[in-house]
Design a protein that fits this description.
It is a single chain. The chain contains 4 helices and 3 strands. It is an alpha+beta fold. It folds into 2 domains: about 45 residues, Single Sheet (Rubrerythrin, domain 2), CATH 2.20.28.60; about 40 residues, no CATH class. A 3-stranded antiparallel beta sheet has the order 1-2-3. Strand 1 and strand 2 form a beta hairpin. Helix 3 crosses helix 4. The termini are far apart.
Length: about 100
């Protein structure tokens, strides 16, 4: 298990919309880099963070009835739920052969 200990250093986040800056705690783990704790960010600022990587975890890429077996294979390999994906017809035909 990774243990986190509070650091003496804090992170300060400034906004260019005139909102007040906020101070966020930094934790040091037993493994990996230090992390900024954003759990109270929304409560203090009314703002969310955006993580494009977590968007991929929101929903699974499911089989599409509109695509061939190879098209679905390519879609499941390369598509992400956050962005539209169009199967390359040349690759699809190459896999169908």
């Amino acid at each position: 298990m990774i243990e986190m200990t509070p650091s003496n250093v804090k992170a300060r986040l400034w906004f260019f919309d005139g909102s007040a800056s906020v101070e966020l705690p930094i934790y040091t783990g037993t493994v990996g880099p230090d992390v900024i704790d954003i759990r109270k960010l929304y409560g203090q600022t009314g703002k969310f963070t955006y993580d494009p990587v977590s968007c991929r975890r929101l929903r699974a890429i499911r089989r599409s009835p509109d695509l061939s077996y190879s098209g679905n294979f390519l879609r499941m390999l390369f598509a992400t739920p956050c962005a539209p994906y169009t199967v390359n017809p040349m690759l699809e035909r190459a896999l169908d052969r």
